[in-house]
Structures are given as C-alpha cells and as structure tokens.
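ARCHIVE CARD
CATEGORY: sequence design from structure
SOURCE FIELD: tokenized fold
FIELD CONTENT:
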C-alpha cells in the first residue's frame, strides 16, 4: 500500500493551524505538527482521529538557533515531506511610531523569515522529489493594509510575493514537475488572534463583511485540504482569498 503523504503544519497548536491539522488528518495525510513547545500540541492531538499518523515537533520561531535546528531536523529526518503549511504567525498590533524595533524584528522573524527558510527547504526537497505543495498563510491585511498593523501587513504581503516567485522559480528549474507554491489570505477568523480585539474594531469589521459573520478556522482548513489535494493541481502561484467578501 502507498504511504500517506506527509505534511508539516506550523503553528498547529490552536486556531487555524489546529483546524488544518485535524482536517488533513481526517483526509488521511501523515502529519508533522509544530508549535513553540510540544505541550501546546496536546489539545490538537486529542482531536485527531484514532488512527492518525503524526509526529509532534517544537521550535520557538522567535529564536534563530531553534529555527536552524528545526530546519536541520526536517532535512535529515523528513526528506519525503510532500507539503508545508506555513501557518505560525503573530500580530503585535501597534501604531508604528510606538512599535519598538524588537517587535518589528520579531514580526519579520516569525512571519517572514521562517516561511522563507521553509520555502527554501521546500524548493530543494520538491526539486528532488518533483512534487510537493507549499502554502503560506498570508492575510487580507496584507492585501488591503491596516492602521496599526503595518509591519504585520508587510510580512503578509511578502508571503504573497514569495509564493508567486517560488512558483516561477520552480517552473524555470524544472520543465516537468508537480510542485506548487500558493498563499491563502484569510479575512477575520475567530481565533485567539482576533478574540481579544476591541469590540468596536470587531463591529467595524463585521459591517464590512458581506457574509455578515467572521470566518471559522474550519473554513480555512477545508480550503487548505482542497488546495493540497490532487483536485487543485492547476492552482499554482495564486493567492486564494477567504474572507466572506471583505475585499
Ligand atoms: P493563533 O490562534 O494566535 O495561533 C498562532 C499559532 O502560531 C500557534 O500555533 C502558535 O504556537 C504559533 N506561533 C506563534 N508564535 C510562535 C513562535 N514564536 N514560535 C512557534 N510558533 C509560534 O493564530 P491564528 O489566528 O490561528 O493565525 C494563524 C495564521 O493565520 C497566522 O499566520 C495569522 O497571521 C494568519 N491569519 C489569521 C487571521 C485571523 O483572523 N485569525 C486572519 C488572517 C491571517 P504556540 O501555541 O506554541 O504559541
């Protein structure tokens, strides 16, 4: 029997990443679940189907040494990786004039540099394997900009540019392949990242969403499962918005 395809989901401990992990496990993929520490993954593991194949991996993405170790571990032990969902991210909303440089560095490190390093790994592995899918979780904020989220917005817009560029790079490197690089740009999804937002801010967002509701993590997870599957083999380099009509 063929081995199930192996997918890495970063930030799989809660919110969107957790929903993606559960959805992919239900679809029969083998999972590498990542969080900053392994204990944070217990809740996700509890929700997986009984026969799910998974391995828990930990790395604090704010620490370059931990990221280096994580990438080395993937290179050594998971050469057969079929997919990467770069989902881990932080927001740190603040007016730019009050944003300390260390927060700017942290946003760039966690939201942009780590996905770049994972994309580099994907390019190398997928080039060898001639197949694979890498999905960066961007954001509607990267598409429309937002007050007090400028650095976050820049990191998310960066992910869109990276996915498009990697798709083109792979096309140049290999004439025949089944490799895809994509980004998904969610609108407002109910998770820890958004539930603490000011009521007025939330009401203002909701008034701009034609669907008249916030999204659920599962909405994004179902889209990811489709994009990873062989039903989406002609979707490459694209940014797929999932935002209830916000933009
Ligand atoms: P969340 O509930 O806050 O979860 C964030 C995830 O990222 C957690 O699994 C967390 O792991 C991981 N993470 C954060 N900092 C990390 C670090 N230093 N090292 C390793 N892992 C770290 O966020 P979410 O709402 O699900 O968002 C997931 C992704 O979707 C993010 O990239 C976010 O920007 C994007 N997004 C979210 C929304 C939304 O409305 N929620 C909209 C658009 C885009 P730990 O539990 O170990 O900390």
């Amino acid at each position: 029997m063929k081995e199930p395809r192996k997918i890495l989901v970063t930030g799989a401990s809660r919110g969107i990443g957790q929903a993606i992990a559960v959805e992919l496990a239900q679809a029969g993929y083998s999972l590498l679940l990542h969080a900053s520490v392994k204990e944070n993954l217990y809740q996700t593991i509890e929700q997986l189907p009984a026969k799910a194949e998974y391995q828990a991996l930990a790395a604090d993405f704010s620490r370059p040494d931990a990221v280096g170790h994580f990438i080395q571990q993937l290179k050594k032990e998971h050469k057969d990786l079929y997919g990467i969902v770069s989902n881990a991210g932080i927001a740190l909303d603040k007016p730019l004039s009050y944003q300390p440089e260390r927060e700017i560095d942290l946003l760039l490190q966690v939201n942009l540099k780590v996905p770049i390093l994972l994309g580099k790994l994907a390019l190398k592995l997928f080039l060898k394997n001639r197949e694979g899918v890498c999905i960066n979780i961007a954001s509607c904020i990267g598409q429309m900009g937002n007050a007090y989220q400028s650095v976050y917005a820049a990191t998310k817009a960066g992910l869109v540019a990276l996915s498009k560029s990697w798709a083109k790079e792979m096309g140049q490197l290999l004439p025949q392949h089944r490799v895809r690089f994509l980004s998904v740009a969610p609108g407002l999804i109910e998770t820890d990242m958004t539930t603490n937002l000011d009521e007025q801010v939330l009401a203002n967002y909701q008034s701009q969403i034609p669907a008249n509701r916030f999204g659920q993590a599962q909405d994004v997870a179902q889209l990811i499962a489709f994009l990873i599957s062989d039903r989406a083999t002609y979707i490459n380099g694209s940014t797929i918005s999932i935002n209830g009509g916000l933009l």
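CARD ANNOTATION: The mean pLDDT is 97. DSSP finds nine helices and seven strands in the chain.
SHELF: design records, drawer C
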